[in-house]
């Protein structure tokens, strides 16, 4: 089931280049994430995903930043952080991952 409140919050963060902090599903730890796009899943267009770079995972403090996708409806306790991130300039909206449609994406 879609969570349009989360979609709007993440899209606003995408537009303004703000990272988000959230818990995922029923996990207890928080993550920080630089969202680059919100889009329909290429495997199931009824699901909406957020794509970007996870910069922090409290459960794995030594883990390096990496590209990730998260199902938007499974994101809980989300907050938009009061700082900006630099987008990854290798990001492209023409990637196969986004073939079912993009709701919002960074503007480069």
Summed up, the helix count is 1
Low-confidence stretches: none
Number of strands: 6
How are helices and strands ordered from N to C? HEEEEEE
Distance between the termini: 30 Å
The chain-level mean pLDDT equals: 96
Gross morphology is globular
**Proportion of residues in β-strands:** 35-45%
Q: Count structural domains.
A: 1
The Cα radius of gyration reads 13 Å
| Residues in helices, as a percent range | 10-25%
- Category by helix and strand content: mainly beta
SSE blueprint:
Blueprint: H1 4-16, E1 20-24, E2 31-40, E3 48-57, E4 66-71, E5 75-80, E6 102-105
Antiparallel strand pairs: 1-2, 1-5, 2-3, 2-6, 3-4
Task: Kindly describe this structure.
There is one protein chain. This protein has one helix and six strands. The protein has one helix at residues 4-16, and strands spanning 20-24, 31-40, 48-57, 66-71, 75-80, 102-105. A hairpin with a 6-residue loop joins strand 1 and strand 2. Strands 1, 2, 3, 4, 5 and 6 form a six-stranded antiparallel sheet that branches. 12% of the residues lie in helices and 38% in strands. It has 108 residues and is mainly beta. The model has no long low-confidence stretch (mean pLDDT 96). The chain has one domain.
């Amino acid at each position: 089931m879609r969570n349009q409140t989360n979609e709007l919050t993440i899209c606003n963060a995408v537009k303004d280049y703000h990272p988000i902090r959230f818990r995922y599903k029923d996990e207890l730890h928080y993550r920080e994430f630089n969202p680059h796009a919100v889009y329909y899943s290429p495997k199931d267009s009824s699901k909406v995903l957020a794509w970007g770079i996870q910069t922090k995972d409290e459960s794995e403090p030594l883990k390096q930043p990496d590209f990730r996708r998260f199902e938007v409806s499974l994101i809980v306790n989300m907050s938009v952080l009061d700082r900006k991130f630099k987008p990854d300039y290798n990001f492209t909206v023409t990637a196969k991952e986004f073939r079912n449609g993009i709701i919002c994406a960074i503007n480069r």
